[in-house]
Amino acid sequence: MTNAGRLKNKTAIVGMDIGGTKMMAAVFDQKFHKIGVCRKKSRSKNGGETEMRVIKVIREAIENAGNPPIAGIGVGSPGPLDPATGVIIDTPNLGWKNFPLAHLLRETFKTPVVVDNDVNVGTYGEWRCTALRSKKHVLGVFPGTGIGGGIIIDGKILHGFSGAAGEVGHITIMPDGPFCGCGKRGCLEALASRVAIAKEVAALAAREDAPYILEHCGTDVNAIRSGVLARAIEAGETMVEEVVRKAAYYIGIGVGNLINVLSPEVVVLGGGLVEAMETLVLEEVEKAVAEHAMPFLRKNVRIAAAQLGDDAVVMGAAKLISERIDEGGAKK
Ligand SMILES: [Zn+2]
Questions:
Q1: How many angstroms is it from 8 CA to the middle of ligand 1?
Q2: Residue 187 Cα to ligand 1 middle (Å)
Q3: Which among 151, 154, 194, 231 has the fewest CB atoms less than 10 Å away?
Q4: Cβ neighbours around 182 below 10 Å, total
Q5: What spacing in Å lies between the alpha carbon of 315 and ligand 1's midpoint?
Q6: How far is the CA of 178 from the centre of ligand 1 (A)?
Q7: pLDDT tier for residue 327 given thresholds of 50, 70 and 90
Q8: What is the domain extent for residue 302?
Q9: What is the tally of structural domains in the chain?
């Protein structure tokens, strides 16, 4: 991993992950070793603006790293956002509307800053910081509370005309299916996110068809997380398993369609659902891909589980800014 390039001696880079519930900054040295970290909740009890918390988390991570000179900051943020300007267009969760995040961080830290969608950045991390780095065409799909996607074509993140390409969760799978958070019906996310699965499993629990779930979570959709789903399946709850398998199969239909359109070499699946039930999810995704992607396009496509877990976004963000600096394309 060469960050040497234009990065000056002894400088470090920062990767920042802004999530809906928590945020994390990590500082990396020139050999890409993590030398400082700071994590905080995205919202404090006393309120306070999100951007002030972002600055604080970055500052503390730099302090924890022993205050090295910083050569650049990469940020993964929920979208929609404009990756060219680093303006966050609208994230009600974080209280940002047309918010110039890159500009603020550039002014505050006097260093180049790049901001991109968190799932794009996570996919970038899984690509650049694992054995996949020799590939050039990578599709990342991350089922969790929603379903995020990142697309790398020819070694570049695909942003599209709007800047927001890669909304894999809002591919229509079932035109008359359940409502999605986006207002449409039958999106992949409405059928296969952790929330969609939990809703169906809560109904099973209410009918006493899932006693393990009923005992541990009651019928509370928010309590039915990926880990407890995995344990219920291990405990032999076959109807819970069927619900999860069906959701994973829907994800596979989405992946199969994307393989037909984009022809990736590798598909990385990550997020809570995959971490908790990797074998089961991959099995169903592979089955659906075999049934829905064209033989010539799906031939030799590797479907792999993500490797970096919670570090994917900070690592991807740090890689992104260090490569931007190496290319000489980072604005200060
Ligand atoms: Zn949708």
A1: 44
A2: 5
A3: 154
A4: 13
A5: 28
A6: 10
A7: confident
A8: 131-306
A9: 2
Q: Is residue 25 part of a domain?
A: yes
Residue 95 covered by a domain: yes
Q: How far is the CA of 4 from the centre of ligand 1 (A)?
A: 42
Ligand 1 centroid – CA 285 distance (Å): 20
Same domain, 94 and 191: no
* Domain end position, chosen among 116, 151, 174: 116
Of the three residues 65, 87, 116, the one that is the final residue of a domain is 116
Among 329, 303, 251, which residue's Cα sits nearest to residue 321?
329
192-221, pLDDT tens digit by residue? 999 999 999 999 999 999 999 999 999 999
Q: What is the DSSP secondary structure assignment for residue 235, as one 8-state letter? A: T
Report how far ligand 1's centroid is from the alpha carbon of 184 (Å). 5
Contacts (Cβ under 8 Å, ≥6 apart) of 79: 88, 89, 91, 117, 118, 164
Q: Assign residue 220 the CATH number of its domain.
A: 3.30.420.40
> How many angstroms separate the CA atoms of 110 and 265, rounded?
38
* CA 104 to centroid of ligand 1, rounded, Å: 31
Query: Ligand 1 centroid vs 180 CA: distance in angstroms?
Result: 5
